[in-house]
């Protein structure tokens, strides 16, 4: 049974400061070197329980196109957690979702919601499941979910499940989303067609990051999907961010969101003012060391 009447959490998104594909497993999954960074943009999930209703799940969201059934990762996370923890909901578990992170953007919105649901249920039902076990559960639902359980700045390898904590930069980001979307399967398909893809310089990136220098780290930002996808809207967004003062800019994940790195959050805010009329999605954020925040609970 639930310990609380309701509970509300923030599910923070992410950007990829570096993303390279270094091979492919026999089962077809691509092997990655990627550095993921939690950012201060988020969805919210509010959990409540209707004890008068039959055992089940209901997702509520007013975002057009947002799935409200068992295909949603939030639903899948709830079912998987219930099975793993050997619990009963004790009624209908209702999840109200405020969706702010854009879809098909490479910001990990679905994975962030999934990870937040796992952690929220752990609190809601008082099950005290270890975070590493939550990561193992999350890996069954998506490659980015384990990172979204842990958050911060991490080097993620394998298919994303091998993680090492890294120092975080003190900087600001501006994230814009061009009026184009990219599906992850299509991005990988295009990558597989490349004959001689470029490679990242992971060692130099990690050395620069360890110094805390925003300037030198920005030099080594890398995303191999930029070459694979090669959309003019992405290139234009990157250039717009640089012209607005970004030290460097990069597409995140498989796109289509693009972020610029700025020395401070104040510089990022100034740049965003120049870009907000050009892009419907234009947000300022900063690096965070956690991917999840409990906003409040009611007993």
From TrEMBL:
Q: Which Pfam families match?
A: GHMP_kinases_C, GHMP_kinases_N
Report domain GHMP kinase C-terminal positions: 226-279
- Give, as in the UniProt entry, the pathway in which the protein acts: Isoprenoid biosynthesis; isopentenyl diphosphate biosynthesis via DXP pathway; isopentenyl diphosphate from 1-deoxy-D-xylulose 5-phosphate: step 3/6
* NCBIfam families associated with the record: ispE
Which residue windows are coiled coil? Answer: none
What one GO molecular function would you report for this record? 4-(cytidine 5'-diphospho)-2-C-methyl-D-erythritol kinase activity
Instruction: Report the InterPro entries cross-referenced here.
Output: GHMP_kinase_C_dom, GHMP_kinase_C_sf, GHMP_kinase_N_dom, IspE, Ribosomal_Su5_D2-typ_SF, Ribsml_uS5_D2-typ_fold_subgr
Q: What is this protein called?
A: 4-diphosphocytidyl-2-C-methyl-D-erythritol kinase
Q: Would the keyword Cell inner membrane turn up in this protein's UniProt record? A: no
EC annotation from Swiss-Prot or TrEMBL: 2.7.1.148
Q: Where is the active site?
A: 14, 144
The lineage is: Bacteria, Bacillati, Bacillota, Clostridia, Eubacteriales
GO terms for biological process? isopentenyl diphosphate biosynthetic process, methylerythritol 4-phosphate pathway; terpenoid biosynthetic process
